[in-house]
Specification:
Blueprint (H helix, E strand, L loop, with lengths): L3 H6 L6 E2 L17 H9 L6 E8 L1 E2 L11 E2 L4 H20 L5 E9 L7 H14 L2 E11 L6 H10 L3 E7 L3 H7 L5 H13 L4 E8 L6 H12 L5 E6 L21 H17 L3 E3 L3 E3 L4 H8 L3 E3 L2 E3 L6 E4 L4 E4 L2 E5 L3 H9 L5 E6 L2 H16 L1 E3 H8 L3 H13 L6 E3 L2 E3 L8 H7 L11 E2 L2
Helix pairs in contact: 3-4, 3-11, 4-5, 8-9, 12-15
Bound molecules: iron/sulfur cluster (SF4).
Subunit structure: Monomer.
GO biological process, one term: protoporphyrinogen IX biosynthetic process
Keywords: 4Fe-4S, Cytoplasm, Iron, Iron-sulfur, Metal-binding, Oxidoreductase, Porphyrin biosynthesis, S-adenosyl-L-methionine
Length: 451
């Protein structure tokens, strides 16, 4: 890693940059894209092709203070049941528009807390999904599982429906940190959920942890990582906690003076990163780790790793359709996002319309920049040959762009005939380097810390 003084000089500890799970990033979506575009893009899907489906459940039993997800707290099942009816209608509309023979290469339930659905609701939802598109061979069906909100019956339903990847959020196991971030989830509860998941033959387990939390120290994150490793997860996402109380009001309950400094955040990340690598995980992109036999590791080695709204993926599908409030779909033509407010989304579906409220249609330049940013975030290199042949750009112009950007990073990047490389010591700067390839004005959007 480059010395901290050099990283500081380059602005790593002050920069606010996107995580680049899309390009352009969501703040650049506009209302120019609506339900008609969405329906047209659905109809343009090749008959018989494999697509991915994301289902969003924006409800939780309690609202954790650290969490910036758009979700509603509810103790009653009534709003959840009403939302399920909306999802079923939306899926039926989608099924009517989809070309024949489409199958799912990936199905993901996220939230919020999808596991707060009761077992009968889960069955209704899976039936509605598989009515319009069955899982394809070797498909992955993943569900975000809240260890505080799961039991044997619900896991039985999910396993019977074909769930083969489970994702659990851990944040940190330390008691003081859990109290400070308003999320109590003990090691034993998490262990029990993991055991129940494994007992049902679910092959793959993902876990998310956070660095940069209040009161987090090297010792505490080490303990959390060691406890997490006792579950032997197949994949781990190590995300930086984004403290944005002006956007996520619940975070105002978290004392800012207990937060680590940006320099300390980098140390916390490095501590956890080393522990995963020592334990035999492959490093995947900027913030994921995977066992060498996991699909992400295999995709990385084969040059097939991709970036999407869930972080990193080995999903080969060109189309990802999001259903539910605020879900984002990606098509070869552009992005389409459903209305964020559950009430607005529900009203549109009741009226028999898709709720697409905003989005973005790709220009040729968007596609080229999107690919360069994805290559940086996945492989830490941009292959000049791939970009010139795919997008018809002049090699000399591309090399000049690489040199211009490399000059902004103090000689840390390598520009050769083959392309641009981000050496290991410069990797903490990757999101800032990606920003240098971003043609949109980033000044107005409230992005999170670069580290
Ligand atoms: S962390 Fe999970 S349970 Fe807590 S508010 Fe966020 S989505 Fe809901």
């Amino acid at each position: 890693m480059a010395k901290k003084t050099q990283l500081a000089k380059l602005g790593l500890f002050d920069a606010k940059v996107p995580r680049y799970t899309s390009y352009p990033t969501a703040p650049h979506f506009s209302s120019v894209i609506g339900p008609t575009d969405f329906a047209d893009w659905i109809r343009a899907i090749e008959p018989g092709s494999r697509i991915s489906l994301y289902v969003h459940v924006p409800f939780c039993r309690r609202l954790c203070w650290f969490c910036a997800c758009r979700t509603q707290g509810t103790q009653s099942d009534e709003p959840v049941r009403a939302y399920l009816e909306t999802l079923k209608s939306e899926l039926a509309m989608l099924g009517a528009a989809l070309p024949r023979g489409v199958t799912l290469s990936r199905l993901h339930w996220g939230g919020g807390t999808p596991t707060l659905l009761k077992p009968d609701m889960m069955r209704e939802l899976t039936d509605s999904i598989f009515d319009i598109a069955p899982l394809s061979d070797e498909a992955e069906f993943s569900v975000e599982i809240d260890p505080n909100e799961i039991d044997a019956e619900r896991l039985d339903v999910l396993a019977a429906a074909g769930m083969n990847r489970a994702s659990i959020g851990v944040q940190d196991f330390d008691d003081e940190i859990q109290k400070t971030i308003g999320r109590i989830q003990g090691y034993d509860v998490t262990r029990q959920a993991v055991d129940m998941i494994r007992e049902r033959g679910v092959q793959s387990l993902n876990a998310d942890i956070l660095f940069g939390l209040p009161h987090q120290s090297g010792v505490r994150i080490t303990e959390t990582v060691q406890k997490l490793l006792s579950f032997n997860p197949d994949r781990v996402a190590l995300y930086g906690y984004a403290h944005v109380p002006w956007m996520a009001k619940r975070q105002q309950l978290i004392p800012s003076d207990a937060l680590p400094t940006p320099q300390e955040r980098l140390d916390l990340f490095e501590t956890a990163r080393r522990l995963f690598i020592w334990d035999g995980y492959d490093e995947i992109g900027i913030d994921h780790f995977a066992r060498p036999e996991d699909g992400l590791s295999r995709a990385l080695r084969a040059g097939r790793l991709r970036r999407n709204f869930q972080g990193y993926t080995d999903d080969p599908a060109d189309v990802l359709i999001g259903v539910g409030a605020s879900s984002i779909s990606r098509f070869p033509q552009g992005y389409a996002q459903n209305a964020s407010a559950t009430s607005v989304h529900t009203a549109a579906i009741r009226d028999g319309r898709f709720s697409t409220a905003r989005g973005h249609a790709f220009s040729g330049e968007d596609l080229m920049r999107s690919r360069m940013i994805e290559a940086l975030m996945c492989d830490f290199r941009i292959d000049a040959g791939e970009i010139t042949s795919r997008f018809g750009i002049d090699r000399a112009d591309l090399t000049a762009e690489f040199k211009r950007i490399a000059a902004e990073f103090d000689g840390l990047l390598k520009v050769t005939e083959a392309g641009l490389d981000v050496p290991v010591e410069a990797r903490p700067l990757t999101r800032m380097i990606a920003r240098a390839f971003d043609a949109y004005d980033l000044s107005k959007a409230g992005h999170s810390s670069a580290i």
